[in-house]
From TrEMBL:
Residues 1-11 have a biased composition (Low complexity). It comes from Hyphococcus luteus. Residues 93-272 form the IclR-ED domain. Residues 31-92 form the HTH iclR-type domain. This is IclR family transcriptional regulator. Residues 1-30 are annotated as: Disordered. GO terms for biological process: negative regulation of DNA-templated transcription. Keywords: DNA-binding, Transcription, Transcription regulation.
Length: 272
């Protein structure tokens, strides 16, 4: 090669630049893909009968080609599968994760026993509720034997604690900084016409719950359903036990329900 055709140092530097993305860029792309895949799974999970590809794109707001690629990957791994009308639904692998979630979410054994006894002795659907990863979560449910029962709150539900008797009770006994942090990051969504959506009114309700050592939800979460929650260990532990009942039966039997629940907790040395 003659001098005229030899590359200059400057051109050598230009030519020597790598077109391979740096490691940080690759990592960022992987994180973005994982986030998008999770968003797709959650969107499908929250649908009634699954979603077609175009519906997934519309509801997630993700780019069309990226969505199609991720959906195919999720199908290949068993997280999604095609259901009726070519709609994508959760696959068997997702079911395995769901089962593991319910198993790992199980409350301490003593709480399961209390939930069972409360359901048996009141006849109403009973729940154990507690803190889980910064949320107030339904950990366990036991259906009562009454012919007409309130709809069950599914295990793992954590939404709108301000409208649930158990949520209000747990917030009432939580340390002040924990309570304030929770209330500052969770909107007081109006679920029914009876839901408390004023922060001042809710704080007054929490103070009352702390003083009387029980909390109620009077059709604040679901129309036609009332709930009663009592603390475990007098409010020291981060759990609450609750029942849900049709409104008319709830008011008729309230005193009996409260006494039964408090006696069951006290009989196991958890009254505080």
């Amino acid at each position: 090669m003659d001098k005229a055709s030899a590359p200059s140092p400057a051109s050598e530097n230009e030519a020597g630049k790598s077109t391979t993305p740096p490691a940080s860029a690759k990592q960022g792309a992987r994180v973005q893909s994982v986030g998008r895949a999770v968003k797709i799974l959650l969107t499908v999970a929250q649908s009634e009968r699954g979603l077609k590809s175009i519906d997934i794109v519309r509801q997630t707001g993700l780019p069309k080609q990226a969505t199609y690629h991720l959906v195919h990957t999720l199908v290949a791994t068993g997280m999604l599968t095609r259901g009726e009308n070519n709609a994508y639904v959760l696959g068997l692998t997702a079911g395995t994760i769901g089962e593991a979630f319910r198993r790992q979410l199980s409350p301490p054994q003593r709480l399961s026993g209390l939930v069972r006894r409360i359901a048996e002795e009141t006849g109403e659907t009973a729940h154990a509720v507690g803190w889980w990863d910064g949320e107030i979560v339904n950990l366990s449910t036991r259906r009562g034997h009454n012919t007409i029962a309130a709809a069950e709150v599914e295990q793992g539900n954590f939404r709108d604690a301000h409208a649930r008797a158990s949520g209000k009770l747990i917030l009432a006994f939580a340390p002040e900084d924990v309570r304030e942090q929770y209330l500052s990051t969770h909107p007081l969504t109006r679920r029914t016409e009876h839901t408390i959506v004023s922060l001042e009114a809710l704080k007054r309700d929490l103070e009352t719950a702390r003083e009387q050592k029980y909390a109620t939800d009077l059709e604040e979460f679901t129309p036609g359903v009332c709930c009663l929650a009592v603390p475990v260990d007098g409010g020291i532990s981060p759990y609450a036990l609750t029942i849900s009942s049709p409104t008319e039966r709830f008011h008729k039997n309230f005193d009996e329900y409260l006494a039964t629940m408090q006696n069951i907790v006290a009989s196991t040395g958890n009254a505080g």
